[in-house]
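Recap from last week: sequence in, structure out.
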Amino acid sequence: MMPREQWDHGYHKLGFSDPAAISYTRMTGASLDGGFDYDEKPIRGVTTLSEYIRKLVARS
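Predicted structure tokens:
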């Protein structure tokens, strides 16, 4: 367990860039603090997971 004030440094030690370390620090805090807001009517696209994977495999 790492103290909250060391999360940013910990992500840097793992090789995260400055912006990524900051982002992951914020996401970790939000996850642990229950701070995610969920829209009751999310906007959804039309691409299915199967279609996305098929296109991804075709490109590789």
